[in-house]
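anyone seen this seq b4? input:
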Amino acid sequence: MLHIGVDASSWENERGFGRFTRNLIPALAARQSGFRYTLLFDQEPTRPVPEGVDIQIAGSDRSMSEASSGASARGGADLITMARSAQRMECDLFFYPAVYSYFPQLTRRPSVVCFHDTIPERFPDLIFPKKLNFRLWQAKCWLAKMRATRVMTISDASANDLTRILRIPRDRIDTITEGAEAIFRPINDNSALIQARQAHGIPSEAPLLVYLGGFNRHKNVLRLIEAMPQILAQVPDTRLAIVGRTTGARFWDNVEDLKASAAADAARSESIVFTGEIDDPELAALLNAADALVFPSLWEGFGLPALEAMSCGTPVLSSDRGSLPEVVGDGGLYFDPLSSQALADQTVRLLTEPGLRNALSQKALAQASIFSWDKGAELAEKSFRQALHPK
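predicted toks r here
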């Protein structure tokens, strides 16, 4: 049985790569196809770990999740602690589910590193508060790509970017996929949908748009808020629920700018609600209760919120950039994320054109069905085997 060591320092993180790690590892463990896994945590995990998976605790002074706040960075001592613990692990291959948490090891052991996207390289001024943060990121990514036996990513769009922007040869890149958790499915209980709206003061009959995700500047949420007056001019009762952590405690964001824009005039102030973080059952109900998820991002490596919405039968009003057309397919409508008018026009079309929302809903469900964590795990195993036994 092949033994895979895993950098689990992103396990506690709320962001996409944390969710990726917490879903991919159980899917890999459930396959029972000749691999066993040991997760290396920086500190004792608080979230559950799947049965049949071993764990080790490196004992870092500061967790990766804590160090990913605002302008912070992981300390060199913590990186050395993780590296030493990994080097002592008797495994055949070491897997980094996110290059974000990468640390180098002084070993010739094969490794696979997942680069989720090249968003930091595309938009450094939107991602990093200081140039030093970007330079440190560049150094880490260069070292990771040079040391990795294989590079993993999560969409063809990202694979193409890794070759074009980071100069990683295409034949060294393995593309896997993501999936939606089972909680994201159609809900036929109308009272549950009304309750999900009422929990956030949203009228039961109002057209409802939902944004779900982070608030980094490249997420382009400000453009969505700025488009609301144009949408309200044609569909006056529309509501927008913005879902996600608004405390500013993770990464460098522009939450204060978003809140100020939402409160800039009476119409926006009454039509936009910031829900904060909500748990998955409530989120699934809110997505089911929505007319559409709006995803205005300037670029994505995959776009898991879009898949979660489509798995509920909710169409996506999507940016036409990055991986989103690859993931959304014909389960939504597209717009130029640089144009608030284009965003508003497509939104009004979805909310007013007879039969369009229902037709897109059926297409969204069909599109979502082609993605799963088991499929992602199967492709990840192929990447591991390729790293262990290169042709």
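Residues 190-368 form a domain with the Rossmann fold fold (CATH 3.40.50.2000). The chain has a mean pLDDT of 91. kinda curious what u guys think
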